Amino acid sequence: MAGCCSHSTCDASAASPRFRLALWIALIVNAAMFLVEFVAGLAVGSVALWADALDFAGDAANYALSLTVLSWGLIWRARAALLKGVAMVLFGAVVMARALWAFQHGVTPEPITMGVVGMLALLANAGVAMLLYRFRSGDANMRSVWLCSRNDAIGNLAVILAAAGVFGTGSALPDLVVALVMSGLALWSGLVIVAHARRDIGDARQVHQKG
Questions:
Q1: CA-CA-CA-CA dihedral for 136, 28, 180, 175, to nearest 10
Q2: Orientation of helix 111-132 relative to helix 17-44, angle to 10°
Q3: Where do the domains of the chain lie?
Q4: Average pLDDT value for residue range 152-163
Q5: Nearest-angstrom CA–CA distance, 59 and 108
Q6: pLDDT tens digits along 163-191
Q7: Is 193 in contact with 133 (CB distance < 8 Å)?
């Protein structure tokens, strides 16, 4: 990573057995929670749950991609991170469009189920975030994994707050506001990852040229 460690050190850290195991655990948790939240979101009519479910799906795919490129060179891991950053930006745009559509056509979600599922998702993602916390300062690929887990935990907490808001007001507005906030977070984090990945690609090319 630029300004953090040498090229060889970053490669060794990214390919460590502990990081690989952490990614497998994160992959399984995210795939399972995608199924739970997707079904629940459709059942209760919650845009926030639906958005969080799609986020779980995207993260599961990201973890699978990260596992694939762990033993590759820095430039390929940075390119994978670049792809993930672009995917996060696209996810944010899709969720924002879905929330705006629901504002005009949606119905008020059922808050109890929404809150229970949100709490389950928060517990799952808090565990994953704690597991990945030690790897947050690695290269662009490792940082993108940490940002995904952090965003998930924040998103789950927001879903719980949205459920409380829907319960207290009887309105779908808290659900839609949370969905919009989650989409904004995905857009911002995606742009951060893209910028970091581009720096890593530039550093890797410089190392290659010097070698």
A1: -130
A2: 170
A3: 7-210
A4: 85
A5: 27
A6: 999 999 988 889 988 888 888 877 887 88
A7: no
